[in-house]
Amino acid sequence: MSHCEGQLVRLAESDRAAVPFTLNGAPSLALEGDTVLTAILTQRHALRVSDFSGEPRAGFCLIGACQDCWVRTEEGQRLRACSTLIEAGMRLVTGTSNNGRQP
After folding, report:
1. DSSP of 39-57
2. Pairing of strands 78-80, 56-57
3. What is the DSSP letter of 86?
4. Which of 6, 56, 78, 86 is surrounded by the fewest CB atoms within 10 Å?
5. Which residue in 29, 30, 64, 68 sits closest to 46, CA to CA?
6. How far apart are CA 7 and CA 37, in angstroms?
7. pLDDT over 70 percentage in the chain
8. DSSP state at residue 14
9. If you average pLDDT over residues 62-78, what whole number do you get?
10. pTM, 2 dp
11. Are 32 and 21 in contact (CB under 8 A)?
12. Rounded CA gap, 8 and 77, in Å?
């Protein structure tokens, strides 16, 4: 699992079991016990784009209070990425492109 493209770089605990999920249609891997936020930010530079400005967002408070970390499943269910654990087979949609960077 390469993390060279992500905002976060995993430095420890890499011996946990891999958890496969899909991110914006692409197969991805997280580690057991990761939140959705961690799973996404080890793959991309942004969690999502702001509904108001279109600017990239990466979460803010990390405890679910600010509601800046909402992402959706492919089925349309909203999830708080900072407080939801990743599960095998999750199909997540962030609304970002270009690896979460602005063009």
Report:
1. HHHTT-S-SEE-TTT--EE
2. unpaired
3. -
4. 78
5. 68
6. 11
7. 87
8. T
9. 85
10. 0.81
11. no
12. 25
Q: Which two tokens stand for residue 61?
A: 């408070």
What are the structural domains of the chain?
A: 18-95 (3.10.20.740)
What is the β-pairing status of strands 56-57 and 70-73?
A: unpaired
In this prediction, residue 96 has a pLDDT band, given cuts at 50, 70 and 90, of low
Token pair of 19 as six digits? 């958890």
95-103 long-range contacts (CB < 8 A, ≥24 apart) are 95/48, 95/49, 96/24, 96/44, 96/46, 96/47, 96/48, 96/49, 96/56, 99/5, 99/44, 99/45, 100/7, 100/44, 100/45, 100/46, 100/47, 100/56, 100/58, 101/45, 101/46, 101/56, 102/55, 102/56
Which amino acid, residue 81? A
pLDDT tens for each residue of 53-67: 888 877 777 777 777
Contact 41, 61 (CB under 8 A): no
